[in-house]
Design a protein that fits this description.
alpha/beta, about 450 residues, about 35% helix, TIM Barrel, 2 domains, 15 strands
């Protein structure tokens, strides 16, 4: 481990999954036959101080399961959790699970061994991977022997990813356009295989969950501060030989977003188009605007999400929780991706039930590869996939895309207005005529 930590995040439980994989889905096996199990504090999915309405929702299986019957007839046997199909298409990319690896806001972590380990393991899993917009402005873009961080991550991913799965998504914000990140990547011969196989996407970043309404922030030393000062707002507000590099968030209206998406489709016709929004109060309007303009995917980063540097006042006080974002969007018009505090199957499945096509792993992915650079993310995802299959099958579904808001219940929510009550033998009409009361006669 490198000393990376995540206060307020279930770090210990994520690291346990990175070490032990699917075994962490269940209580300790040596307690079987000794301890009596039931709901307790240890079973809670998140730190109570960080709960949002997505965490408080409960998954509620029905008693009658027509989709299970359909699956039984299809298979000729009783369905089991392994029969749940988790494969999906994420922003134009085929994926074995409704999961992708989010961009890492911390350039120091993302550009180092952890970023490379995450790239290799995401590639092995066949999961789409997003690369943050800060890597090129801070780390540069160099081809050849002394490869820049962004190319190193792309190559590590491509070398390990099956040719029919996954894809790489490269972010760029408005201010980062001066670095021509997309042009450099799109024209790079080393990325040609991804372009030719349709596994490259560009994501227009309008915001992020960690600091809605602000641009990216990175901590740099004095030398980098002088180098970046002509393109970014570099401020001396930190201690020691550290400076804060601030990017502007950009200015957007409906028409500007439409034009940006069209620009991306016209200039990079062989790349998919993703758009990322912060958890703003008009997120539903923004998402619909992007889809109708032609975006292949819209990413919503809920408040309390993020891996990068942010002012403390923003971390717990600004932006909508992820669950509220998803509820405001409702039935999505296109591929909807959700990120923010995802690390286990329960929160992931609840997000899918609220309309998300897939969920992103950010902090959880970094902690996993920091715990084990070879297998940590693989084990974490394996545990999440097992939980997802158990939960989805318990709901009587056998396709992740079949989940719906009907599978959720929130404490304090009103009961359904009407509940269908099956007829009883005492009141049911018989095929031969009117019902006769039990024990009655002429």
């Amino acid at each position: 481990m490198t000393g990376v930590n995540a206060p307020g995040f279930p770090e210990a439980r994520v690291r346990a999954r990175a070490r032990n994989g699917t075994a962490e889905v269940f209580p300790p096996v040596d307690e079987y036959g000794i301890q009596l199990f039931g709901a307790d504090g240890d079973a809670a999915p998140a730190d109570p101080g960080c709960l949002d309405d997505l965490d408080t929702a409960r998954l509620v299986p029905p008693v009658f399961m027509p989709q299970r019957l359909e699956k039984l007839i299809e298979l000729g046997r009783e369905p089991v959790p392994d029969d749940v199909d988790l494969a999906t298409t994420i922003g134009g990319f085929r994926a074995p699970l409704p999961v992708y690896v989010s961009a890492f806001g911390s350039t120091r972590i993302a550009a180092g061994d952890a970023g490379l380990a995450a790239s290799r393991q995401a590639g092995r899993l066949g999961l789409p991977m997003v690369i943050g917009e800060n890597l090129v402005p801070v780390g540069g873009y160099r081809r050849g022997g002394d490869t820049s961080p962004i190319l190193a991550r792309i190559r590590a991913y491509a070398e390990h990813c099956p040719p029919e799965l996954g894809g790489v998504v490269v972010q760029q914000s408005t201010e980062d356009a001066d670095s021509e990140v997309w042009n450099l990547v799109y024209s790079d011969p080393s990325v040609r295989d991804l372009v030719d196989s349709g596994r490259l996407a560009f994501e227009l970043k309008l915001g992020q969950g960690a600091k809605p309404g602000l641009g990216g922030m990175t901590v740099v030393d004095a030398a980098d501060a002088r180098r970046l000062a002509d393109r970014f707002d570099v401020r001396d507000v930190l201690t020691g030989d550290r400076w804060l590099r601030c990017a502007t968030p950009g200015t957007f209206t409906e028409e500007i977003v439409r034009q940006q998406v069209r620009f991306m489709r016209n200039n990079f016709p062989r790349a998919r188009v993703w758009v990322k929004f912060h958890p703003g109060r008009d997120v539903a309007h923004a998402a619909t605007t992007a889809w109708r303009a032609g975006a292949d995917a819209v990413t919503v980063d809920g408040a309390q999400g993020g891996t990068g540097w942010a002012p403390r006042a923003f971390l717990g006080q600004v932006g909508l929780p992820l669950g509220e974002c998803l509820r405001r969007i409702g039935r999505p018009e296109g591929c909807l991706l959700a990120s923010g505090r995802i690390w286990e199957g329960g929160r992931a499945v609840r997000a899918l039930a609220l309309g998300a096509t897939a969920v992103g792993l950010g902090r959880a992915a970094l902690l996993a590869v920091d715990t084990d650079g070879e297998q940590g993310l693989v084990r974490l995802v394996s545990a999440l996939a097992l939980e997802a299959r158990l939960l989805i099958s318990a709901l009587g579904r056998y396709d992740a895309g079949a989940l719906s808001v009907d599978d959720l219940w929130w404490p304090g929510a009103a009961a359904p207005a009407t509940v269908a009550t099956p007829a009883t033998p005492a009141t049911a009409a018989s095929p031969a005529g009117p019902a006769v009361p039990v024990g009655g006669g002429r």
